[in-house]
Design goal:
This protein has 354 residues and is an alpha/beta fold. β10 (252-257) and β11 (260-261) form a beta hairpin. The protein has 2 domains: 1-111 and 295-354, P-loop containing nucleotide triphosphate hydrolases (Rossmann fold, 3-Layer(aba) Sandwich), CATH 3.40.50; 120-289, Glutathione S-transferase Yfyf (Class Pi), Chain A, domain 2 (Up-down Bundle), CATH 1.20.1050. The chain has helices at 35-47, 104-109, 121-124, 127-139, 145-165, 169-209, 227-233, 235-241, 268-289, 307-319; strands at 2-10, 13-19, 24-28, 66-75, 78-87, 90-95, 98-99, 112-115, 213-218, 252-257, 260-261, 295-299, 323-328, 341-346, 349-353. Helices cover 42% and strands 25% of the residues. α6 (169-209) packs across α9 (268-289). The strands form 3 sheets. Strands 2-1-4-5-6-7 form a 6-stranded antiparallel beta sheet. It has a 6-stranded mixed beta sheet with strand order 8-12-13-3-14-15, sandwiched between helices.
Length: 354
């Protein structure tokens, strides 16, 4: 679990030190007081990307030249220090006192999931968000997935570059062989994970929405063709567009209520509950085999939910084995959750509450 965090010059937070409970920690404060900035700092430590900003310069507190985030993480190997710093336009990340080349080393010991007011976009918007969330789950259950995914991404970039630079068919075909080998591994792991997750999701979603809900995993090319055949068949179009139009990078999830695609019929509140069900089912599935709990960040759960649906969500959250860090403008957003430790935040300053 995440035991402590120290933050300097991140967003509106000048300096903060917080100690978290193993089960539940609540953060109370008015809007724009620094609650979301805290969750964003935790998320950044585990993912090396922001929730809202597209450049790291925007994360630095106004008037300052750097930000630093350091967490103490309790693991089966003991307490490890994970830290990231951005200064002079460059980032530096360390784990247990050593520089690391990939954020996956921190992600492995500090699995983080987030439910925030924009979570409905998982259902409403394009496939990239759904694919990234699916891959989070696969990464945490299948050790070989990340290596295959990286090889696939490299081959994809090279094939697209070959199209743009007018390379020969021999060069393009060589990268296609790598795409096929790695793409089939990526798809196999995703498909197996989706099959495990589906019944957990269906149970969780029906509890929240009072209707049967499911999802369908689509791998990114025709289910009746091999990836090798699809790449050859689509090569003329890919040459014209100068990009690869089939493969695991086009995979997606389709949520359905009955026979209807959910995006076409459900309200914003229902979209939020559906997306929450997907994330909670991932955390629940991971808890079955993982030795370390997921750190679940819950930002302002009352947003866009009525009292009944908020109660359902908080009950579902409390039933999931995880370390919970939840923010709210009032105690109502914490009702029904086992929050042991609380902090009040005002103008980026955090004070423990008795």
């Amino acid at each position: 679990m995440l035991a402590t965090i120290d933050i300097e010059n991140f967003r509106c937070i000048e300096s903060a030190h917080l100690e978290f409970d193993a089960r539940g920690t609540g953060i109370l404060g008015r809007n724009a007081s620094g609650k979301t900035s805290l969750l964003e700092a935790i998320f950044f430590l585990g993912h090396a990307r922001s929730l809202r900003a597209n450049t790291r310069e925007k994360l630095v507190r106004r008037g300052q030249s750097f930000f630093r985030i350091v967490g103490q993480v309790e693991t089966p190997r003991g307490v490890l220090t994970a830290g990231t710093e951005f200064t002079g336009g460059r980032s530096r990340t360390r784990l247990a006192g050593q520089g690391i080349s990939s954020i996956s080393e921190i992600a492995e010991i500090l699995p983080i999931q987030l439910i925030d007011p924009s979570v409905h976009k998982l259902v409403e918007e394009g496939s990239a968000r759904r694919r990234r969330l699916l891959d989070w789950g696969v990464f945490h259950v299948e050790q070989n997935f990340l290596a295959a995914w990286r090889r696939y991404q490299r081959a994809l970039l090279q094939r697209n570059a070959a199209f743009r630079s007018g390379q020969t068919l021999a060069v393009i075909s060589a990268w296609e062989a790598e795409l096929v080998e790695c793409g089939e591994i990526v798809d196999r792991h995703r498909s197996a994970y989706a099959a495990q997750l589906k019944p957990v999701f269906e149970e969780t979603a029906e509890r929240l929405l009072d209707e049967p809900v499911t999802f369908e995993y689509r791998r990114g090319w025709s289910k009746d063709e091999t990836l090798a055949d699809e790449l050859i068949a689509k090569r003329p179009r890919d040459l014209q567009l100068r990009t690869t139009t089939v493969g695991p990078h086009r995979a997606d999830l389709t949520f359905r209520m009955g026979e209807t695609v959910a995006r076409d019929r459900v309200s914003r509140g229902q979209q939020k509950l559906m997306a929450c069900a997907f994330i909670l089912s991932q955390v629940r599935l991971r808890a079955v085999t993982a030795t370390m709990p997921t750190c679940l960040l819950l930002d302002d759960p009352a947003a866009e939910l009525d009292v009944d649906n908020l109660g359902k969500l908080l009950k579902a959250v409390d039933s999931v084995p995880s370390q919970l860090i939840v923010t709210s403008v009032s105690d109502a957003g914490l009702q029904g959750i086992n929050v042991v430790r609380r902090f009040h935040v005002e103008q980026g300053k955090f004070t423990p509450m008795l």
